[in-house]
Amino acid sequence: MTDLSARSANPAVAKAITAVPNLVKLGYRLLRDPRVPTKHKAFLGAALAYIVAPVDLIPDFIPFIGQADDLLILAFALNSIFDAAGEVIVQEHWDGTGDVLEIVAGVVAWGASLVPWPARRAMKRFLRGF
Description:
Elements: H1 3-9, H2 11-32, H3 38-52, H4 65-85, H5 87-93, H6 98-113, H7 117-129
């Protein structure tokens, strides 16, 4: 079975692949939207900077856990900006279908829930104090 036929055989894989560019566009559009609070934009920017920074709390060379901290922080920041923007604004900026947005939002919320409580509390304090 070729790579193309494997993807077409699984619609969930195809949806996941098509969601990535739309998620990037959504994040960019939310960062530019004046209706989204600045502190949530700054938090998403800080999360993106953390991901590309060479220094991590958990080094990336540690299998799985090294990359997981980056993904969880990004999920928490995306979940935060989705909540701050509200469903109407998020849907306005989403290019994909509604069912895919629902899946993406669910995965982002799930990832955010995996952030350990002390880190979640610290990030929420940051957002309140900004």
